[in-house]
Structure formats: C-alpha cells, structure tokens
Amino acid sequence: MKHLYMLALLMVSTWTFSQQKISGKITNEAGMPLQFVTLHLIENNGYTETDENGNYQLKSVPQGNITIVVYLFGYEQQTLKINSLDVQEYDLTLKEKEQHLDEVIVSTAFNKIQSQNVMKVSHESMEEIKKSGAISLMDGVTNIPGVSQISTGTSIGKPVIRGLSSNRVLTYAQGVRLENQQFGEEHGLGLSASGIESVEVIKGPASLLYGSDAIGGVLYFNPEKYAPNNTTRGNVFQQFASNTQGTNTSFGIKSSPNNWKFLLRANYNSQADYKISSGDRITNTRSIEKDLKYGIGYANSRFSTDIRYNYNQLNLGLPEEGIENTGFRNPLYPKQDIDNHILSLNQKVYFKNSKLEADLGYTFNNRKELEDVDVIALHMKLKTGNYNIKYYLPKWKNLETIVGVQGMHQTNSNFGEEMLIPDATVDDFGTFITSNYEWNTNVLQAGIRFDNRNVITSEHGTIGEEGYFGAIDKKFNSFNFALGYKTNLTDKIISRINLASGFRAPNLSELTSNGVHEGSNRYEIGNQNLKNEQNFQADLNLEYKSEHFEYFINGFYNHINNYIFISPTGNMLDANYVYEYLQNNATLYGGETGIHLHPHPIDWLHFTSSYEMVIGKQKGGEYLPLIPANQWKNTLRGEFELGKWFQKAFANLQVNYTFDQNNISSFETKTNDYTLVNLGLGGTVKLQKMKFDLSLNAKNLLDKTYVAHLSRLKSDGIPNMGRNIVLGINFNF
User: N or C, where is the chain less crowded by C-beta within 10 Å?
Assistant: First the structure.
C-alpha cells in the first residue's frame, strides 16, 4: 500500500500544465441576463456562478469530454456534454420552470445526475436537514425513507438501512471508508453535520463498488464544497434546542484564489440531559462534541488534488441506573471519550479521453469507556489505511468502463482493563470492472468484483476462562456482481430494475467474543467457524414526474445466506444471560412509496406523503432483531415571499405515524404505535444590509410520550424525547 501512496504523491508533484477555460453568458428567454446561475463541473466537482451580467467563467476545466450541470431555482435544469478541447465559449438560455434539482450522484460509479442513474439513490442536502430542526446528524438522515437509527438518547445513533445495521452498512466521509468500531450497538457515527454538504444513501448491496460490509447499503457524506473561483466566503451557524438546553455553533471560511482552494470549519455542540413528556430528565444522556475540518485543493486542466482533515472529539454520557445527577452539561461516569481523525487525499489526473482517480485515506478511532475518573474500562485504538484507485477508460461510442482496485490495512490494539475484541490485523484487497451503456433514454450497467479479506488476531487470556481470545488466521473470499437497467417508459415515467449480490465477512466481535458486553448487559460468545454472509437482492423502482405531481414506489427482496445473529442459550454466566453467535439463512423484503403534490395554480403549496416498511425473517419463520417499525410520514408545506424583508419563506406541518412493531426476535419486546406532530417555519431575512437565514421548529409538538422500537433505552422503559423547540440562525458573509 505504501507504493500506492507514493504513486499518488508523484502524480501531485510531477504534473503542471496550462489552464483550460470555458466562459459564456446565460440569459432567460427574454434575453435578460441571469445572476447566481450555478454551473457544476462533474469531472472535478468544481463550480462557479454567473455575475450580475449573466457572465460566467469555468477555470481548471479538464481536457476532453466533460459534463456541466446548469441550474437556477425557477428555471429548467440543463446538462451540457461537451469537449473542452473544442469549446471555449458557450452561451445558454434557460427556460422558466418550477422543478426540483436533479442532483449529481457521487456515490455511484459514473457520477450521473439522478435521472440518468441506473440505481435509485436517495439524496438530502445538509441545508434542508438543518432547516428541519435536526439536532444530530443521524436524526436528520432518518428523514430519508428506508433509513432508521439505533439510538441511545440524542447523542448516539447508528444507521439502519432497510432493516440492516452495524457492519452491514458502510459509511463514507471525505471519499474514504469510515471505520469506528461499528460492531458495537452503543458506537455511533463519530461525524458532525458541520462541514457536510449532503448525504447520499444507497439502499441495498453495494459490494461492487465498496467491498465487504456494504451488504446492506452505504451512507455517503459529501464534504462541503470550496468557494467558487476567485471568491472568499464564510458563514456562522447557531442552533438552540429547548429540550436539551442545547447549543450548536459552527463557523466556516473558505477561499478559492485562482487554482488554489482553502477551507476551514470549526464546530462546538453541547447538549444537556433530554427531557421526557412527564418533565423528568434522563440522567447522563448529555454530550459535548468538538469538530474541526480543514481542506486544501489545487486544480488545473490536467489534474486536481483535494486534501482534507477532520478531527472529531466526543464526550458522551452513558445512562445507567444509580447515577447521581450532578452538574449540568459535563457527562458523568460511565461515559465514552472518543477521538476520530480522518485524513483523505483525492487525486484526479485527466488524459485526453480518459481519467485516473485515487482516493487515499487514513482514519484513527481512539475509543475510551471510563467507569470512573481513574478507571479506563475499555480503551481501543483502531488505525485504518485504505485506498481506492479507479481508471475511467476512453469512452467508446456510448459505452463507459471503469476498472479499479481497493484495499484496506487495519490494526486494533487494546489498552484498557477490559477487552471486547482482541488485538487484530485485517487486510482487504478487491478488484472490479463495471460498464455503463446508454442509448436513447435507456441505460444498462453491469459489473463484477473479487474480494479477499485476511483476519489475524492474537491469543489472550487463559483457555476456558472469561476474556480468553484464541488466535485466528482466517481468509474470506467472495465474487460479486451487479446488473441494472433504467428506461423512460414515457416522457414522465422512469423505471429501474437492479439485481446485485453482496457479502460481509464476520467481524471480530462475532468471531472472538468471550465475556460480558456491558453495553448490552449480556455474556457474548463468538464463533470462529462463521462463514461469509452472502446475499442477493432485487430492486424495482418506478417514478412518475409531471409539473405538479410526482409519485414513486421502491420495492426490494433481499435473501441472505449464512446471516449472522446472536441468540440466547438459556444459560447464565457471571449473573448475565449467555448469548452466542449463530448463522441461518434470512430474507428481508419491503420498500417505500410516496407522492409529492404541488397543484396548479397554487404552486406554492406542497404535500408529500410516504410509507415505508420492511419485514425480516430467518429460515424457519423466526423474525430478525432490530427491524424498524413501519412508518407513514406526511408533510404539508407552503413556500411564499413576504416582501423584500422575508424571502424564500416556508412553513410546514408534519404528521408522522409509526405502526406497532409486533414482528420481534426472541429477545425483543413489542412496541406500541404512536403519532408525532412537528411544525416548522423559516426563510431568509433582510434588514437593510444585513441578511441571514432563520428556521424555527417544534419537534413532537404535542409532547407525546412514546418509545421507539430501536431505542437502546427501551429495555429500561425510558421514553424518547418530549417536545423540543429548535431555533437555527445562519449568517453568510
């Protein structure tokens, strides 16, 4: 792997070339210039905006075939496919039309806009998530149909995609794989919403692009964009939450002089114990988060480089019985103290008709669990280096092809009094090829991949006693494929069908556990004979889009061979029930459906409604654990202008109904249904020369007492949060 790092650094240091530029003017149908039109250059993720005269200039344009997405709210979006060697000036006329932005999807292989993509990928901007009043990153992501979370209060959230979680869902940040001991139920993401542009969610096996652990899907967090060329921008965001008496402050500044790009963002988030509907606070659900993000980039017509670093420090309380409620915000013992470091390098080199791209990353997860001021019960250091190198072959007619290699080297070391998993080394290597063929309104995409994972652990303890870990040296291999087809059945109806396989090698906890897992209050025994989980999933997506009505339906069927699950044995050790890891075939099926209505002539009014469901069973009929309850979500939203002082204003009412969850595993309990009502409003305020964005949300407006099925506090009978009023203010300068 060291050679690959050297190769990337060589590419940075040896390429220096002259500039490639494209300029022009953008007007409306009346010939009037349009200001603030965004032009997004997909190949290097660069963008610019038109000035007051409608003029634009894209610098550092890659040579050869490029794709530019042009959009402005209230106008028809356009996608330009041109050759930068042939075109240096390009004028454009935009037609007025009220429509939603067709996002560029970064998490899939060919970075198409959504309407051209074979796979349906959910996309949500962080701006919209903040406007919804979410006080944590995972809280906001769960607004996406098919996504849930395993939560511990407000501070810890683990993603669940269509009933699959833990090591079955991969998280990517800054273009690199995030590893943070995600096998633990009380181990959250370790990411701040500050400095994230948007999130993309792949629902279903994504092993073709991401290898092991993407069997259930991928959360792909796109980092904040740099400023447009030759501009400097900054912003301050402040959020207040009444329930947790929480405060969240973010400050960022970025500049892009000529070919260089710089970015700096700092965030401080503090939440006190959350309050339930009765008025009681749940002791030690408090948290403090500090986050720093840096970025530096350089681009010209032959290459682009983007280096980013993220430091995230989390101090999280762990609620337990018998804790004396002292202080206010500082977490009490027991608590988690976690440092996450993410260092990434994205390097692209553009040839005449092809492109080479490399993502190199290093992550360091330093996790401590403290029972008292002098007692570090658990201390694990997880260090991960990974690489992802892709070569985009020259396009042949309508056929695009990518070949790539990926790998990971990971070490886990223990320093605390207790051990959940032994010291270990994990090495991954994978290689793949995928092609995309387009004709008329049809797209066909196919690919194959081979992966190898080698797991080596150290022996620890005494045979036959608690805390003994036997040495392991195991290899896991898998071949996988993906096949997708997209077509426009009519000018308003899009159909997609995807067939894909995926795999997951057993994690260290499943292979080696031998002791009490305090986070789950059970004695867990691993199984060194576990095999790969191997799945096959079929997805069907239909979308209808007209000017005033949209409808979608997504269905999936997911069969998993050798599904790994934990099951009670009926025995007890050290006053804890014994659970062991077993395997059985399993099936999950379900989907999401929804509508979006904005009727003419009252185009300012929007009504959205969606329903999501998933059922998971083992072979033999027993239900799988941690399957979210079915949900029906409804939103009525109005968008309007109140003169020059209050623009882009909105008001929305949400009514979300969660059904009973009676389909439970052998160690779960049933969950009752509940309805939550949320209210929100906001917009852009202009007071003379001052301008800022304002949002005010009332979450759980009726102060409903409820318990979410996937809450880890459910077993203790602790309800979820009561009413929460969230105020957000954002100043751009």
Answer: C
